[in-house]
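Holo prediction — iron/sulfur cluster.
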Amino acid sequence: MSSTRTVEVSVIDYQKLAWTWLTPSPNTMILQPATFCPMDCGYCYLPNRHRKQDMSVDTVEAIVHGMADDWFTDKPVEIVWHGGEPLAVGVDKFEELLQPFEPLRAAGKVVQRVQTGAILINDAWCDLFKRYEIDVGVSIDGPEHTNTTASIAVGGRCSPGSSGALRS
Ligand code: SF4
């Protein structure tokens, strides 16, 4: 004999549950400034990586406006620019997106991070990273002989070993 057990969770219960999981003071906020990724890996989990759709400055301003005062403790909130490939927005646009955070960064309330495949890094990016004190995390999926095979790197690109700017 089989039986079915129904568990009812009301919307209000769900919201309460969610608030017990979410910290009121986030340590990290992850932002995706671009949908496009030039690497186009065969195993990519993102369906819209071929579409070029960048985050707007208005969106960043709304995000900054929505950061509540009690987010800011003695530790700065990490703003992590992630992807896709966050550098696909280009240096100038990326710098525009950083501006709404600048008063908070100057006050020591946020720090900037970027997580990148690094193939787009050049001297202009390095200059921007220095000026905004951006810590750079590099995603490396494997050695070149494994990540440039046709079955893995559909776009024919590999992760970052070839970036001269990265080495220097
Ligand atoms: S680098 Fe990441 S986001 Fe870009 S195509 Fe590869 S798996 Fe997708």
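READOUT: Residues 37, 39-41, 44, 46, 49, 83-85, 117 surround iron/sulfur cluster (CB under 6 Å).
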